[in-house]
Write a structure and sequence with these properties.
Pfam families: Hydrolase_6, Hydrolase_like. GO terms for molecular function: phosphatase activity. It is a single chain. By secondary structure, the protein is an alpha/beta fold. The protein is built from 11 helices and 17 strands. The chain has a 6-stranded parallel sheet with strand order 7-5-2-15-16-17, with helices on both faces. Helix 6 packs across helix 8. Bound molecules: SN-glycerol-3-phosphate and magnesium ion. SN-glycerol-3-phosphate (G3P) binds next to loops. The site of magnesium ion (MG) has 9 residues, from loops.
């Protein structure tokens, strides 16, 4: 049992259903001025399980020709793979990559910006493949902590499960400096990643680093307390719902740990460039996806359906018109429909996705 109303966990459907008009886009002639953006975990799925009624709710949106896209702070896989995973979890067809905005999707343009520069990629699952799909030179200019530690094991003198990419000696005399650290996704070995990222950020003495200091970016100078590489993080979620009854730590918690390890030396907090919900960049990108799908941008209402007040509701509320936040009770928020989040009150609170969709259809009808 996992929701307030007593919905029971159920396993993945084995019957695949095809949405009516799955491949058809809505033409400008009969364009809906209502659109929906769906959070995934805690709304459509919970961990590896579909939320009851989710597939039917999406079918209702299709039927009514309401354009919808997914905006999740999850990632670690390509947009295409995430769309396929979602189809398989829900037992449906017709959700393509063009409906999928992941936490790291806004990193795509960074591949061009850092094309000739060395960057450190952080993240488990398929992070290397994702970065490659965005155009990063993975394994060479875009390296992982595992590649660094393979070449320089003294950096992290503990047991490591290495990736398959070749070792890279980032301290070699002719090695380019690490200009940026890009946190794509939750890393699997926090201890090693925390060590490597702090090493990249700080200017240590030549003696300590055994040659060229690790990660001295072109903007850095030798000295203490200087952050010498850009730090980008794609997911500020401190907690997320997942399958366990109590929310789990997210990538935002990893960044907090990083700040904690950086602080004791009397330094100013690390400057982090962030994307992911609740940041405006994500909501702008979601609107762009919707416009492409609907073939217009003349929306009267864009409903954001989410379970996390600090991410989904805050982001939609800050985006202003035509966004409206709808909070559901199947994930992080457990306050029930009679209540609302204190810090980030939603425009409307609904029990679950099916209820949220029905109320949207009523409002737009
Ligand atoms: O790692 C995923 C998690 O932080 C949140 O996912 O779909 O609720 O934005 P979602
Ligand atoms: Mg969520």
């Amino acid at each position: 049992m996992w929701t307030r109303s007593g919905h029971v966990r159920h396993s993945v459907h084995c019957v695949r259903r095809v949405f009516p008009g799955a491949t058809r886009q809505i033409g400008a002639r009969n364009a809906s001025r209502t659109a929906v953006v769906l959070d995934i975990d805690g709304v459509v799925t919970r961990g590896a399980t579909a939320v009851p009624g989710a597939a039917e709710a999406l079918r209702r949106l299709r039927q009514q020709q309401i354009p919808f896209v997914f905006m999740t702070n999850g990632g670690g896989v390509t947009e295409k793979k995430k769309a396929e995973e979602l189809c398989s979890l829900l037992g449906v067809d017709g959700i393509d990559a063009d409906r999928m905005l992941l936490s790291h999707t806004p990193f795509r343009p960074l591949a061009e910006r850092f094309r000739e520069k060395r960057v450190l990629l952080v993240g488990s699952k398929d992070t290397a493949e994702v970065a490659e799909s965005y155009g990063f030179d993975v394994g060479n200019m875009a390296v992982t902590s595992s590649q660094i530690v393979k070449a320089l094991p003294e950096i992290y003198p503990w047991p490591v499960t290495h990736c398959t990419l070749p070792p890279v000696d980032v301290n070699a005399a002719d090695a380019p400096p690490i200009e940026a650290v890009l946190i794509f996704y939750w890393p699997s070995d926090w201890a090693m990643e925390l060590q490597a990222v702090v090493d990249d950020m700080q200017v240590v003495s030549d003696v300590l680093a055994g040659g060229r200091p690790l990660g001295v970016g072109t903007t850095g100078t030798n000295g203490t307390g200087v952050q010498c590489a850009e730090l980008w993080s794609s997911n500020p979620d401190f907690l997320w719902q997942a399958g366990y009854p109590v929310p789990r730590f997210g990538t935002g918690a990893f960044v907090e740990c990083l700040q904690a390890l950086w602080k004791p030396f009397g330094r100013s907090p690390l400057e982090v460039q962030e994307c992911g919900k609740p940041y405006a960049v994500q909501f702008q990108a979601a609107r762009k996806l919707l416009s492409q799908l609907a073939q217009h941008d003349d929306f009267e209402r864009i409903y954001m359906i989410g379970d996390n007040p600090a991410a989904d509701v805050r982001g939609a509320n800050s985006a202003g018109d035509p966004w409206r936040s709808i909070l559901v009770c199947t994930g992080v928020y457990q306050g029930g429909v009679g209540s609302n989040d204190k810090e980030d009150p939603a425009w409307r609170v609904e029990e679950n996705l099916p209820d949220a969709v029905e109320s949207i259809l009523r409002m737009s009808g």
